[in-house]
Amino acid sequence: MKARSLLLVSMLATTPAPAQTRSPETARLAWLEGRWTGSQDGVEMEETWSSPSGGALLGLHKDVKGGRMVSFEFLRIEKTPREGVVYFASPRSAPPTPFRMIELGDRRVVFANQGHDFPQRILYWLDDRGSLHARVEGQIQGKPRAEEWVWTRTR
To answer: Are strands 143-153 and 84-91 parallel, antiparallel or unpaired?
Structure first.
């Protein structure tokens, strides 16, 4: 009986974390994982995403122009108790701005925050060639504006 009890305690101690720490939605974003690079208008860009293990993806974006870093951003995607899956953007270490996930496909995700100045929407998708696209959309002073980038996986 003692052996069974010890075995049970040992099994419980090594059992994975409860289901609430996992997120099927964030697991579906595994296609973002890796290091992505591209160049546009003389700016060398790289964006790196962690795996979705633990229910979250962590990201880092960096822009380099003329051999000097000109911009960076810390990123996080995780499931929250109140808003569902949220993309948190922290450009230049600013406090994170949340964008709630409003669409999730096999290789496409859309996040939105209508109360944010710009952007109000952030989209990521993987095309048939395996290139990662990122697009931000919104309005500035009542006029529509969008920016888009394309990267290839390097790792």
So the answer is: unpaired
Q: Kindly report the pTM of this predicted structure.
A: 0.84
Q: And the tokens for 148?
A: 């888009």
Confidence class for position 22, pLDDT limits 50, 70, 90 = low
Domains of the chain, earliest start first: 15-153 (2.40.128.20)
Decide: 4 and 11 in contact? Cβ < 8 Å.
Answer: no
Q: Which residue has the tokens 């209508």?
A: 114
Report the 10 Å Cβ neighbour count for 43. 14
Would you say 154 and 36 are in contact if contact means Cβ atoms under 8 Å apart?
yes
Cis peptide before 24 (omega within 30 of 0): no
Using the structure block, give the residue that is written with the tokens 């109360």: 115
Question: With pLDDT > 70 as the criterion, what percentage of the chain qualifies?
Answer: 86
Residues contacting 130, CB < 8 A, separation 6+: 152, 153
